[in-house]
Amino acid sequence: MRAFNLTLFTLLAMAKKRPWEPLLIMLAIMLANAGLITVLLINEGASQGALLQSNSSVLSGQIIKPSDGQEGFTKNDYVRLRKAGFTSLIAMAERQVNVACGSDTTSSDSDSFDADTKSTLRIVGVDYQPLLGSAFSELTASLFNSTSTTNTAQNQLLSNAALIHPITSAKLACDDLLTIRTPTISPPIISTLATRTNETLQSQKLKKVVTTRIEQGIMLVAMSQFYSAGITEESTPLSGFVSVHTLTAEDISNIQTLLGNQVVLQSTSQQNETGSLPQSFKLNLWSMSALMGVVALFIVLNAINLMYRTRLPNIVRLRQLGIGQRELLIALYAELLCYCIVSIPAGMAIGFYAASALSPIISGTFSSLFNAVFINPDVNLLFLFALTLSITFVSLLLFAVVPVSQLTNALTPKRVKSVRTLSVRTASLCTAAAIAGLITIQQTVHNTGMALLFVAALLLLCCSLVLLWLPLLAKSLAVVAPKSWPVFHFVMANMHLLSGKTKLAVCAFFIALTANIGMNTMTDSFRSATEQWLDQRLYAPFYLYTNQPLSTISLPSNAQVTPLLRAQGTTTFQGKEVDRVSISSYPTHVSGREALVVDFAQPNAWKRFVEGRGVYINQQLAFALGISVGETLTLSNVTYHPQNNESQSVVKDKENVDDIQGAIDDIFTSPVTWTVLGVYPDYGNLNGQLLVPLPFFNRVDTASGDALFSGVIAIHSSSEYEITDTNTVNHSVSDSEGSTISHSPKNTVSNTAHESSVVTKSDIESALKLNTKEDAGQLFSQQELMALSLNTFDKTFVLTDGLNITTLLVAGIAFAVSLTVLTLGNAAQLSVLRALGVSQLKVKAVLFIQYLLLCIVTALLSVPCGIYLAYVFINLVNRYAFNWSYSLSINVQVIATSVGVSLLIISLVLLLPLGKLKPKIDLRQDTQL
Amino acid sequence: MLLINNLVKTFSTDAAPLLNNINLQVEQGQSVSIQGASGCGKSTLLSLIAGFDNVTSGLISVGGLQITPNATTHGQTNPELATPKPIKKSARKVQSKKALDNFRKNHLGIVFQSYNLFDCFNAWDNIAFTARLKGNYDSAFQRTLMQQLNISDLAKKPLNDLSGGEQQRCAIARALVHRPSLVLADEPTGNLDEATSEFVSALLFDICKTTNTSLIVVTHSSDVAALADKPMHLHQGKLLDAKHQPLLSV
């Protein structure tokens, strides 16, 4: 024990003497743990958000609504029902309000309530009292961190609160207070800016409470808050009663008897639309964090190697003085443990700060892209510390075993071996063998796990190749460097030596840069593929996204429409089954034909498609089923698509769901067998999709058309509308049925009619506003939709880009710090240079050039590896993880930017130590061992 | 060639000067050895001559070039010594560091105790470095020099393959190959065995003599010191003629 203590004390004294080396180790451990904690927290936040989102909504279940023609219920109706024993019913009332952040509306002037600071939400007032007796009481206790379990206390807390969904909260982007503005005269249920311009507004301030137990787009408030600011039961009657228990037919009958009116029982269920996109997001994050982990590991090992290299003489002295190998080994690991214990809390703190700083961005990304929830996770700090400490220390134990063993075995100081450089021929042969091996292994990859392993293998193999080629290139540079410039020649020759000493730092930098180039090239390829695809796919000048039923939408007389109808079913091919495949309509007109981008297609595919003799399927479905063009798939269990949300609910209110399903069954006589005519790219969609000609849906009636309507309509001018074969097909539900889409009276719907006037956005907007009382949806021009899509695309990669740059930054800094540490170790030689008459500035300049050249050579080697990595990402990782791929496009500018940024980072980091470097000129220089 | 006039070097204001009123004149081609106890200031004196460190007071001039531009003279000037040619006053501040660098590059050869060769070069490139730096690289002269030092066959060998004696001979060659006017050698044989030490020192003195290069050697070895034209002894900050201080040189 005494020997161990003495050894550890000596090691720590060495660390104190040369603090840069242990500091580099601690910095690397800290950064690695910061990255790990950030990713852990983000993933945990996503998981906890998904878990919470999976909980049912407070308002889910059965809702009793008044039947058609009735305005609503009264408080007396509610009292009557409760007195009759229907205590599980909860009264609710709803209207639409404009909501702003609390701080935005300090002025009572209505003008200050501008469009930028408000959102329109559905405010739902409920009677909290009966809810508090249910499972909702646990929720309220957790929401307010209240230990009080009394209903009265909870009721008091809820009376001034507005409960909203996290996604709604993210969209509002408010702090604690929300302000609701209500017109003092407010007879209509829906109040919009247009209808109350001249009205005075009354504001209510409510405390924002975020919970996933509330549906999106809703603000839940106490009934007392709902009926305030001039809102009365007369103007806004109760809209329904939520039942926390299942009601039987007898219950409904009794309720109708008690109320003296017909009621409609509406079932609500919450759709969890998170799908698998958050999974891909998490996979992305884990991949990036794994990359960061590997880079950090290389950095730590590099720092350990550097430290042990300079310590060798002292360690040898310890061994020569009788310290045993075992004691030395334990002491070395104990020292590493000390560094871990010191730096991990700092890393955790940075990780927490980073996760906290990133929360708004992640929350926004989650809500806007995935329609999913991200929450700040609740974690156990001690557990997290133990976990990160274990991971870090075990990794160090495993990976530092070689240098530690070498060190403890040394009994005599051995001189630094000269760098052994293989011949170009040998290196070329090794490279060829490695590439051949990689290509062979690549053929065996057939799932996501193997694809990711292949990425790891690729990076490690490329590292080996870099270690093989870097000394060769450095030596070549030293050979070609003019000897008449002795200082430059010295620098080049020294770079050759340095390439041997900085192996691990070079690897870390190389991996980070290769991954950066790979990711950026992949993203750029994806972006350009998506842009081209969108450019071709968006054939109509305008697109309407609406929640209204298809049958209620009115458009100008000179507009022709192509609605997107869709159903959902199960596809089968050779025993493989894919559920929830979207069956989407596709127009058969010329624009549609030109817009359809295909990867593979049969001869005469379009003609056969128009004739209904086959379908196009997306890449995702083709990959998932393993089906090729010309083969036949089977479709079964076809139903309307669950994401046709709003129009679907409208239908459910008014029509018989069974009738709609019957109509769908009539179209898709189950099972349907279809030939795959072509495979098309469908970027951004994780699910399978198949396209059937739009006329295929023509047989459905209005109600079924509404149920199948996805909410998207392409709008052309009549003059732009051309068809493929006027005699054989109709182009939309409206065209065939003649009634689904209504037009102005003077307008006639005709495929062949070519009207001279061109439809404009204002025409469409006017028609939509005039003919609909509710929000008709959003109208986008082709350019707007394109910009929006690409903006969304860019948002998707914000986080991974951030992590990617951070990794590069960390690797770059570590590389530069390693070089600086080596420079300090090499001070003796620099001093000799100075002693021989080389000026300070020249020494600094040539050192800078030397390091930069080393980086440039590494960067040059990383370019081909990065491109190959991008190819692997696109054709293996994307292929198996997301079931899509696209062509690789090599953008010189993207690669040059990656390389340029990395070199800039290193240059900047190097300037600081080089600026301060002042080699001491001394006659008594000690050469390093 | 070398002129030191009333040189004083103090490391702290309240301490006694390490070098106190040193005066020395070395002629072209003349060799001087300096002996003395450890810590007496021998290497400091060489550092001051090489311009590595600043003098507290006094003047040092090599080949007419004053290398102590900012020093002030506190002591009395030795009237027997020639007055050095001062660097132009206007250029002093701007060019002082550059001038010192140029002085070392063009006029000085240094032999370090630890050889201090570049491990990234082979023997030939190590030796050629100073000549290439000065711009008077002459491969024939270098070859001759290496033959004289008996290291011709080591030219292409990596540094790590050379023994201590071989490395020191390379260091000597490097200090002479650019034909400096003055060579400073700090314990050139300190790391060598007696036989090698004698051989290397003899070579150093001989070559300097044949190339008419002035040489100042700091050494603990009386044998090495005895080879010099002007053996000196540094004692309590004073530089004394060793011929007159036989007891001190023991």
Describe this structure in words.
The complex is a heterodimer of chains A (929) and B (250). Chain A is α+β, with helices and mostly antiparallel strands. Chain A has 4 domains: 1-56 and 297-415, no CATH class; 57-268, no CATH class; 422-540 and 787-923, no CATH class; 547-776, no CATH class. Chain A is 55% helix and 15% strand. Chain A contains 30 helices and 21 strands. The longest helix of chain A is centred in the middle third of the chain and has 46 residues, at 325-370. Chain A is globular. Chain B is an alpha/beta fold and 250 residues long. Chain B has a single domain, classed as P-loop containing nucleotide triphosphate hydrolases (Rossmann fold). Chain B has 7 helices and 10 strands. Chain B has helices spanning 42-50, 89-107, 123-134, 139-148, 164-176, 194-210, 222-226, and strands at residues 2-9, 19-26, 31-36, 57-62, 65-66, 108-111, 182-186, 214-218, 230-235, 238-241. In chain B, the strands form 2 sheets. A 6-stranded mixed beta sheet of chain B has the order 6-7-8-3-9-10, with helices on both faces. Chain B has a 4-stranded antiparallel beta sheet with strand order 2-1-4-5, with helices on one face. In chain B, strand 4 and strand 5 (65-66) form a beta hairpin. Chain B is globular and about 50 Å long. The chains are: A alpha+beta (929), B alpha/beta (250). Chains A and B meet through helix 16 and helix 28 of A and helix 1, helix 2 and helix 3 of B.
Write a brief caption for the model.
By secondary structure, chain A is of the alpha+beta class.
List the keywords.
heterodimer; A: alpha+beta; 4 domains; six-stranded mixed barrel; 30 helices; 21 strands; 55% helix; globular; B: 250 residues; alpha/beta; Rossmann fold; six-stranded mixed beta sheet; four-stranded antiparallel beta sheet; 7 helices
Strand order of the largest sheet of chain A: 2-3-7-4-6-5
What is the domain tally of chain A?
Answer: 4
CATH homologous group name of chain B: P-loop containing nucleotide triphosphate hydrolases
* Annotation field: number of helices of chain B: 7
Please outline the major beta sheet of chain A: 6 strands, mixed, barrel
pLDDT averaged over residues of chain A: 74
Element string of chain B (H = helix, E = strand): EEEHEEHEHHHEHEHEE
What's the β-strand tally of chain B? 10
Quaternary structure type = heterodimer
